[in-house]
Specification:
Undecaprenyl pyrophosphate synthetase; globular; alpha/beta; six-stranded parallel β-sheet; 244 residues; 6 strands; binds farnesyl diphosphate; single chain
Length: 244
């Protein structure tokens, strides 16, 4: 039996996992310990999402701006990511979880790219849940890449300007083929979007908790989902005239 009412469960949950550094500092530990504990929270939330029937889970694991962090911290994050991908492959296969990635992944170290694309390939036929890791991701960069792609199609006379609809733009983003997030969760109490899924979050419900990411577990996740289930989503329309 699932611990939550399955009707009106969000189809797509996106999470800004923030507060690893502060969690570590509060405990007198170094930041890397915070990221290690954060990776454990990722495991728990991925498994639980699949268990309760979330179809799409998108995690902001490394932003374009995160490259500015000290080299040793970036290295530690990449190492953690490599370890996570290696250790979770079995879990993903057993539970039908497919892996995807969005972002400028060509900037990732070679070893990470290799494990990442190997895992994506091996899990490509899994479809119980799609786990998308945003890596070297920035929302403005994504929109910029889409504009350049579309402009090149115009320049080559492959499309006309009037063919550029909202759907056309959506299809030019890294998230092409994915539904927009229904729910955005942000931990650590910051009221910011931080360059995450700028186009896609237009009508998402937002849940912000002061809990630091390493402490974010099943119970708090359930609280966010239950809160979402109480929301009246109007998509800019009136009560009797809404999209879903
Ligand atoms: C924010 O904490 C978190 C990140 C920079 C990235 C998230 C990374 C993980 C959860 C660990 C590894 C990921 C995977 C997928 C295994 P912060 O350092 O910005 O915290 P602060 O704002 O308190 O400094």
């Amino acid at each position: 039996m699932t611990p939550i009412e399955t009707k009106q469960l969000p189809e797509h949950v996106a999470i800004i996992m923030d507060g690893n550094g502060r969690w570590a500092k509060m405990k007198g530990l170094n930041r890397v310990r915070g990221h290690q504990k954060g990776a454990e929270a990722v495991r728990e939330i991925v498994t639980f999402s699949r268990e309760i029937g979330i179809r799409w889970l998108t995690l902001y694991a490394f932003s374009e701006e995160n490259w500015e962090r000290p080299a040793h911290e970036v290295q530690a994050l990449m190492k953690l990511l490599n370890r996570f991908l290696k250790s979770e492959l079995r879990e993903m296969q057993e539970n039908g979880i497919g892996l995807k990635t969005i972002g400028r992944t060509e900037k990732l170290p070679k070893s990470t790219r290799q494990i990442l694309f190997d895992t994506i390939e091996k899990t490509s036929s899994n479809n119980s849940m799609i786990l998308t890791l945003a890596l070297s991701y920035g929302g403005r960069q994504e929109i910029l890449d889409a504009i350049q792609k579309i402009a090149a199609q115009i320049q080559k006379n492959e499309i006309t300007i009037s063919e550029i609809t909202e759907q056309f733009v959506s299809d030019a983003l890294y998230t092409a083929g994915m539904p927009d997030p229904d729910l955005l969760i942000r931990t650590s109490g910051e009221y910011r979007i931080s360059n995450f899924l700028l186009w896609q979050l237009s009508y998402s419900e937002i849940y912000i908790t002061p809990t630091m990411w390493p402490d974010f577990g099943k119970n708090e996740y359930l609280a966010a989902l239950r809160d979402y289930q109480t929301r009246d989503r109007r998509f800019g329309a009136t009560g009797g005239n809404r999209k879903k």
